[in-house]
Amino acid sequence: MSDATLNAAPSRPVRKGDHVFLIDGSSYIFRAYHALPPLSRKSDGLPVGAVAGFCNMLWKLLREANEVGVKPTHLAVVLDHSATTFRNTIYDLYKAQRPEPPEDLRPQFKLIRDAVHAFNVACIEQEGFEADDLIATYSRQAVEAGADVTIVASDKDLMQLIRPGVIMLDTMKGKIIGRDEVIEKFGVPPEKVVDVQSLAGDSVDNVPGVPGIGVKTAAQLIEEYGDLETLLARAGEIKQPKRREALQTFADQARISYRLVTLDQNVPLDTAIDALCVRPTEGERLIRFLKAMEFTTLTGRVASATGVESASVEPDPSIASARALGETAPAPAAMADTAAPATGAVAALPELHPSALAAARLGAARAPVDRSTYETVLSIDRLRDWAARATAAGIVAVDTETTSLDPMQADLVGVSLALAPGEACYIPLAHRGEGDGLFTEGLLAGQIPIRDALAVLKPMLEDRGVLKIAQNLKYDWLVLARYGIEIAPYDDTMLISYVLDAGRGAHGMDPLSEKWLGHTPITFDEVTGKGKARITFDRVPLDRATAYAAEDADVTLRLWHALKPRLVAEGMATAYETLERPMVPVLAQMERAGISIDRSILSRLSGDFAQSAAALEAEIQELAGQPFNVGSPKQLGDILFGVMGLPGGTKTATGAWATGASILEDLAEQGYELPQKILDWRQLTKLRSTYTDALPSYLNPETKRVHTSYALAATTTGRLSSSEPNLQNIPVRTEAGRQIRRAFVAEAGKKLVSADYSQIELRLLAEIADIPALRKAFRDGLDIHALTASEMFGVPVEGMPSEIRRRAKAINFGIIYGISAFGLANQLSIGREEAGAYIKRYFERFPGIRDYMEETKRICREHGYVTTLFGRRCHYPDIAAKNPSIRAFNERAAINARLQGSAADIIRRAMVRVAPALQASGLSGRMLLQVHDELIFEVPEDEVAATLPLVAGIMERAPEPAARLNVPLKVDARAADNWDEAH
DNA sequence: AAGTCTTCGTA
DNA sequence: GTACGAAGACTTC
User: EC number(s) in its UniProt entry (predicted)?
Assistant: First the structure.
């Protein structure tokens, strides 16, 4: 290889058999920056990690065997010239939300250009065009000339260019991307990639796409219809209404997206492709640069390959110094993220403003996730190193992998940790070979014995000086509790998101990652499969397990960096610390306790219900004159309104006959026999399928109890929700329903204690709306519904007809729900006009409540949220919707949220206080369940007398000292052998 | 096998 | 009129 200096750019036409390499420089820089450990020039701390990675890659492509197995005849590094391109004229939001590059990356862009020149390689950039468009154009020209093309990049936007003779090479993963890989990723071949992308959109580049359509659905649609235009033209044929409407509504948005993602293959090039021919490496020039960068290893390699005496070459003095670039050299991301003692660059820059550090940190947290850097920890020494670094850092993201989604049955399979964005590991502990589950091969070799690993992790996980960060910690808390580990202190990114953004989208990790990091993590389903084909996590191969698990910890840590600062900035830190975070161990302990159910009661009921339902079914079919599926609303509607021609038939939104309870009740009142029997049949089958049959299947085989799962971040108002099984909707209204409650029992020698708030939401209405008459009524312990009726209708409370009181009660509930004449009319089975008149009269008597409702709407419109008594925010982004019914719905929800949410806050405060208070009093009762305004405990018989007043007192005083209400809270508490009698 | 619609249980 | 979750029927793949 000649070392001659060739200043004039040579040129050699591209012809058949040539091989053109096009390097996507810009995206390579970003990836190298995040994938590689932060590296600073020793002499002055100039960040050079991305430059080093880039130089190594380029050297390898030029001089050594690469993955493609050929040496380039033509080669260019293609860069983005500026942020604004023709795409911004199509769509002004294109790439709009893309964050600024991190501070310690910025000075490296210029260095990369210097590097390209030092390598004597063509460096291409062109105003108004992205690197991708230039690559597309060169690629087309090369193919037309009969040459092969290798695009060195991993950006999915370039995959549309793949065709015979054109492949992509991801040097960081050492992977070639061809037609098959594209099909694997997009579900369609390269030539259809743009069609799929224009439907699915791209959150990273802010390509809108069509809402509700992801890559999977898009691929399937394109597969079926061929291309975007055909699909849009025939969108009306699509069966699924949601999908059809989305495609029709957002057709133009999809067309815009199509233009955004389609690369321009006809850019008027400033530099002809012939000029990209590979030029000889000038050893001395390159070494001058590498020495200036202080890349000693690469300098040595280049020297020996080019035969230049390295010692005789001086570093290039023109290569920028940190100071000359006018850049502060901030801490590498890994350091900025930790509470570790300031070292290196941080120590050298004491004047660096905290917000600059925060910006650098946020930049790192938002940087692309690279799964290839995660470590699989297989030795106790490596584990000790990770634990020690976590302890030194004082902060670590943690995630557990297990054999089950049910934390009460899940066995630990592995633990992942993240110390800084991109710096994460997975510690497999109980992975097995890929067996059939019956013939287990035993543990996979090489894993650290679980006891040894937990012995290393436990001190760190319980260290008061190390903040553990998790997403949905309650799950991991429950799992680790069963291994004798109690995590503390901790933060939960799901709960931080919830307290900040309740009502503004979901709080699971995948949606949060999309929203805040613009990154799509590997999904659990992708790793384990789903449905019948699902495998347990212990059968996931270690490389896939590491990519998935370490990424979860990595993403969790990045989310924490993105969200935690908002708590203070937005004034939500107290709400998080008092209403959210302390609930994790409280709920975990409740779930772990579970509740005992009496199987024999349920199985007897099941039999009874089945028999009665069968009898009813026979009568129903007799009355109908033909056999049909009574459980099918479709068939039932045909019988009632078609065959029998009953009056009052209305259609549902989808055009089917409506056969809901209220319609059947109306018919029953008119004297028809069949509808009542249907109602009875429905009740019996409902109770049987949902409760008496289903509940026993939730019995935990080890504990012989039922362990529900509470969701802390599921509702907009702050309420909990319960699932698997839902123990917040156990029947209570009818006698048949109450029999089910009798199956919830205390264990021998104990009682169930139920303590519930009496009319808490109405009391909060009186408090928040500040209605003196209502406040006084509660203070005096009056019958609030009777009083309302008396005020409205002028009837004395004494001897009031029950129907009058019933109507007033419905109005009171209506107020809490953000009353409408329509709703009240439905509830009371009266006309809209009459209901409207009631409401008018109510507001005349209680004008303060109308003012409260108007004020709530105004506040919600102004801020986009309402606030509870304790500072929780409930967001209603559609409060100002143009559509009147959507707007009215949001207004009612906002009115309700202040009350429902304040009540939810109060019971949360009580729940946090109960366990310590019981313990302080030497009582051993355990809290088992929460049903919005009710707490259920299991208490030794001889402690019941002491527990009842203690619990009631804590609940009644729960608002204090944060709020001192002018209305008393009233709690009724009772003990019995089963839930029905205690309630 | 998975997703949507309808219905119904609770506060 | 608010807030939820679960089940069966039905549709779609």
Answer: 2.7.7.7
pTM over 0.85: no
Report the nearest residue to nucleotide C8, CA vs C1': A631
- What residues have CB less than 8 Å from A337, skipping those under 6 apart? A361, A364, A365, A393, A395, A419, A420, A421, A557, A561
Residues 6+ apart with CB under 8 A from A930: A590, A710, A720, A722, A728, A907, A911, A936
Which domains can be identified in chain A, with CATH numbers? 19-179+264-276 (3.40.50.1010), 333-363 (no CATH), 368-581 (3.30.420.10), 596-704 (1.20.1060.10), 770-871+879-896 (1.10.150.20)
pLDDT in tens, A117-141: 999 999 998 888 889 999 999 999 9
Query: Which residues of A spanning 655-694 put their CB closer than 7 angstroms to strand C?
Result: 685, 689-690, 693-694
Q: What is the pLDDT of residue A351?
A: 30
- Using the CB atom, is residue A2 less than 7 Å from strand C? no
pLDDT of A846-879, one tens digit each?
A: 999 999 999 999 999 999 999 999 999 999 999 9
pLDDT digits (tens, 9 = 90+) for A284-335: 899 999 998 889 888 988 888 888 888 888 888 777 654 444 433 333 333 3
Spacing of A904 CA from C3 C1' in Å = 11
- Distant-in-sequence, close-in-space partners of A607: CB < 8 Å, separation ≥ 6: none
Query: Which nucleotides of strand B come closer than 7 angstroms to any CB of the protein?
Result: 1-2, 4-11
Calculate the dihedral angle through the C-alpha atoms of A104, A109, A114, A117, rounding to the nearest 10 degrees. Answer: 150
pLDDT score at A701: 93
Task: Tell me the CA–C1' distance in angstroms for A384 and C5.
Answer: 44
Minimum CA–C1' distance nucleotide for A634: C9
Query: What pLDDT is stored for residue A283 in this prediction?
Result: 87
